[in-house]
Amino acid sequence: MAKILVADDEEDVGVLISERLQSEGHDVEWVSDGTMAIARLEAEQFDLAILDIRMGGCGGYGVCSVAKNSPKCRHIPVILMSAIEKDSLDWKRVKADAFMLKPFETERLVGLVRECLRKGQTGG
Question: Which of 2, 36, 85, 120 is the most exposed place for a label (fewest CB within 10 A)?
C-alpha cells in the first residue's frame, strides 16, 4: 500500500489517523510539527501527506507550499486539515489536493486518502 506522512501537533489526532490508515494496510509516519514534516518529506519518498494547517514549527500551508515547490515532492498529493472552518477557503492557494474539516469521520478520511492516492497515481 502507500507510504503516508501525517503531521499534526495534537497527538490524539495523529495517533487516530495513523492507526486507522495502518488498519487499511498503509505505512504511516506521524510527526508533530511542520519543521519535522518538511525534513521527512525531503528525506523519504512518500505517496501522500496529511497536514494540519495550524501546528507548530511551520503550519500546513507552509509545509504544503514547500512541498509543491520542490522537484522531489511536488508530485505528492497533500490533504490539509483544520478545525477552523474559514481555513477551507484557502487550501487551493497552496496547491493542496484536498481539505478536511476537523472533527472528521474516519471513513471520510479513508475515502479522501483513496481518492488522492488514485489521483496521484494517474498524475492528477
Answer: 85
pTM for the whole thing? 0.94
**pLDDT digits over 91-105, tens only?**
888 899 999 999 999
Q: Which domains does the chain have, with CATH numbers?
A: 3-122 (3.40.50.2300)
C-alpha cell belonging to residue 83: 478545525
Beta bridge partners of 53: none
Please enumerate, as own/partner, the contacts of 98-106 that have beta carbons within 8 Å and a separation of 24 or more. 102/13, 106/16, 106/20
CB–CB of 2/27 below 8 Å? yes
- Alpha carbon distance 88, 75 (integer Å): 22
Q: In angstroms, rounded to a whole number, what is the distance separating the alpha carbons of residues 49 and 33?
A: 13
Report cis status (omega within 30 of 0) of the bond before 103.
Answer: yes
Helix (H, G, I), strand (E, B) or coil at 103: coil
Sheet containing strand 3-7, strands side by side: 27-31, 3-7, 48-52, 78-82, 98-101
Neighbours of 28 (CB within 10 A): 22
